Structures are given as C-alpha cells and as structure tokens.
Amino acid sequence: CSNDDDNKEQIINEEISGAYFLNYGAFGHGGSSITRYDFRKDVNTNNYFQAQNPGIILNSNIQYGATYKDSVYLIGNMTDELISLDLYFRPGGNAIREGLANPRYFVGEGDLLYISCWGAKPDYKTMPDSYIAVYNTKTRKVERKIDLPGGPEGLALANGKLYAALNYIPKVAVIDLSTEAITSIDLPAVSTYFVSDADNNLYLAIASYDPGAETGLAYINTSTDELEHNYKLPGVSTTYASILTANSDASTLYVVAAVWGEPGSIFAFDIQTGEFSKFIDNLNGVNGIEINPVNKDIYVLQSGNATEAGSVSIYNAEGVHQKDLEVGISPYWTLFLD
C-alpha cells in the first residue's frame, strides 16, 4: 500500500467486530478492496480500508488474507508483497516485498509465517522454481526459502510438520520443520486447500481442470502421513478462494463444486458417514464459502465477472437464504474479528 496524500485527516472507526470480505479486484489491474459487514448492526461498508486510511491505496491484488497474533496480514500479487495491518486495518509498517515472488497463502507458528510462493517466472506446468518463504514477524524479513517444486498453494500445520497442497503436481508435500526434510503423499489429482478435523488430521480439496479426473476430498492421517480416504465429488472448484470450510466442531465440511457447464453448488460433507449432500445449489459465479463463528450464518461469495462489484449471499445454518450484500470486485476470502 502507498500514501497518495499525506495531508488528509485520518478518521478511524474504533470498532472491529464484523466480517471482512477480501475483494481480489481485477487481475493485473488492481481494484482490490475490503468490505466490512457489521453483522450485529446489519451495516455493510465497502472500501473499508480506504475509509480507515484516507489517502492510502492498495497497490496489489489481494490473493489471501488472515489474522495472526493480533495482526491482519494480506498477501498481495502484482505487486508481490506481504502487507501487515493492525486490527483496525491500519498499516503496521511498510509492505514486505524482498524474498516474495508470486506469494499465494500463509500459515503461522510462533514468530514465523510460512508463505507459499510460485517463484518469479512460473512455468505453470511443473513449477520447478516454487518455494516456501519463511518470514519472521519480529524482524519483518524473509529469513530463508525452502525450495518446493510443484506450485504450493494451501498450507497446514500439524505435529511439527508443514503440509503444502501442490497445485501442479498430484502430491502433498510434507516438510519436517525441525530438519526441513521433505517427503510427499501421492494424490489422484492436484490439490488446493486444507481444513483440520478435531484430531488435527487433514481434509484436502482435490481439483482438476480435466472433467474426467477423480476430484473430491482427500483425508490425510497426520500421524502416519498417509492418504487414508479419497471421498469422490465431481467438479470441485479450481478457484483460488475459500472453496473449503468447516463448521465449529469440524463435524461438517462445506465445499464448492459444479458439474461442468452448470451453476455451482455448496456440498455438505458429514465426516461421520463420509457422504456428501447438496446444501445450496444454483449459484452463479460462486467463488467461496465461509461460516460466521458467532451466529453460524453461511456466507457465499460470488462474482458475476472480474470487472464489476461482487456479492455475498447470506444463508442461515439450515441453508435458507436471508439476504444479499454488494461487495467489491471478486470477493475471495472472509476473515472475522470480534
């Protein structure tokens, strides 16, 4: 982010409770923004970052964002950067750019963020130059890189190991964080994002651009690092967004999928029965899904196209539509503050 007017008065909203929708913008043309929805007061505020920071603009497309240790971190693409914000969405320091080439996603442990990166010149085939950047939140520097070919996307931490979903090779990489030794788990197709169950094992979205590929949810036992099950579901979304989430006790998972050429649907997966059921269907331009941890409402993020305002459709826990919100261009992720 950068300041285009040092003389503007800064008026800060001192409330933080709400759902924050991270709007990617238009690829290569900026337009990223943040929408704050105060669900308790039913007040929706677009361009919230700009409202909190008069004169400061977001230079890059927001690829991903999450809270960690009382800070908000945004992954930016074009410009490639990591932006650190406080809980009022005020910049906590200059954006970090050195050591980050096509950053995608992050997870944190201790003082470190592990950031998946595709490299400066990705080939979009086998991604030989991709890596994990190890960023120290205290020194605000990328301390080192862990070479990891295959295009790491989503990440997860369990049992002292970093799991990386490889988006261009049908494997999951497993990095022992004490030695940085890397092993892998074979998959039926490429993968995108993880969620953890109550026992710290992992479910993983398996996706493919090939309509005939075996997609669904993989289940990885993090004690043995084995793929124990592959629950098949056709058309799991290939969108780089919040396509997979879980309810509060991880008893039910929700995944975005679509039969090719048809509108998208949200499927509910019962981890006890191992079965999918269609939860919300006939969704156009669905990007992602998230569950409000306070009131259990379900937010479905949608985009008609990549140049106009997107929307968030709100459903209750039973899947009954409540209302729609207008948000920024291409809403991809949601974070909650309370």
Q: So how many helices?
A: 1
Order of helices and strands: EEEEHEEEEEEEEEEEEEEEEEEEEEEEEE
> Could you report the average pLDDT, rounded to the nearest whole number?
93
Count of individual beta strands: 29
Return Rg in Å. 19 Å
| Cα end-to-end separation | 25 Å
Low-confidence stretches: 4-12
Task: Kindly state the percentage of residues in helix.
Answer: under 10%
Described by strand count, sense and barrel closure, the largest sheet is: 4 strands, antiparallel
Fraction of residues in β-strands = over 45%
Taking strands numbered 1, 2, ... along the chain, how are they ordered across the largest sheet?
Answer: 4-3-2-29
Going by helix content, strand content and strand pairing, the class is mainly beta
Principal-axes geometry comes out as globular
Task: Write up what this structure looks like.
There is one protein chain. The chain is mostly beta strands. 1% of the residues lie in helices and 51% in strands. It contains one helix and 29 strands. The strands form eight sheets. The chain has a four-stranded antiparallel sheet with strand order 4-3-2-29. Strands 9-10-11-12 form a four-stranded antiparallel sheet, with no helix packed on it. A four-stranded antiparallel sheet has the order 13-14-15-16, with no helix packed on it. A hairpin with a 4-residue loop joins strand 23 (264-270) and strand 24 (275-283).
